[in-house]
Amino acid sequence: MWDQRYNSEEYAYGTAPNSFLAQHADSLAGPVLSLAEGEGRNAVFLATLGLQVTGVDGSAVGLAKARKLAHSKGVTIETLVADLAHYEPPEECYRSVVSISAHLPGDVRARLYPLIERSLKPGGIFLLEEYTKDQIPRGTGGPRDPDRMTSSVDLENAFPNCDIVLSRQIEREVTEGIYHSGMASVVQFIAKKKA
Ligand SMILES: C[S@@+](CC[C@H](N)C(=O)[O-])C[C@H]1O[C@@H](n2cnc3c(N)ncnc32)[C@H](O)[C@@H]1O
Q1: What is the whole-number distance in angstroms between the Cα of residue 33 and the centre of ligand 1?
Q2: Closest CA relative to residue 61, chosen from 2, 146, 108
Q3: Is pLDDT larger for residue 1 or for residue 132?
Q4: Taken in order 101, 102, 107, 113, is the CA torsion positive or negative?
Q5: Is the CB of 129 under 6 A from ligand 1?
Q6: Which of 25, 63, 152, 175 could make an SS bond with 167 (beta carbons 3.0 to 4.6 A apart)?
Q7: 2-193 belongs to which homologous superfamily?
């Protein structure tokens, strides 16, 4: 499904970074792991800030476009094709992990989140934004399956070895290519791994 969506000259979610990520980019340090990176807009943005970034995604087509976007901006990113249902990030390796609109099923999140926490160095940051269940009736983007939506409470419980820096569910206008367009219900989350 994702290879099909990305099999076009157009960038499905545009080439500008997610605005929540951009607003908080000054709190991130490299190396950065970007989960469900897709066509590269977020990894490439972080690379233009001088950060070393690895983008992981299940779509080889998306990551090929990510490398093309990086080349067009004169930066380099690392890419890794992997299924996040099985992926194991290296331990205490990253100073930041970001996850924008990943929308993984509940069982995949339950396996992956402890591994994300473990992959952060002490003091490292995890930053996430995605749609919540309240988004489903809006029709302005995101999956229709509530199992693919998380919440601020779920996230707070999933990172017991982190201090919560920001955790909220808000409504905001999202304009990201043709698939994310309009008022949206999102969860925004930033956690810092305890030293
Ligand atoms: C809505 S797109 C978001 C892409 C990117 N984060 C962005 O904001 O532009 C969701 C992405 O999650 C990826 N994805 C979904 N399930 C995955 C899985 N199990 N393993 C790896 N990637 C997955 C898809 O390939 C897709 O690129």
Answers
A1: 14
A2: 2
A3: 132
A4: negative
A5: no
A6: 152
A7: Vaccinia Virus protein VP39 (3.40.50.150)
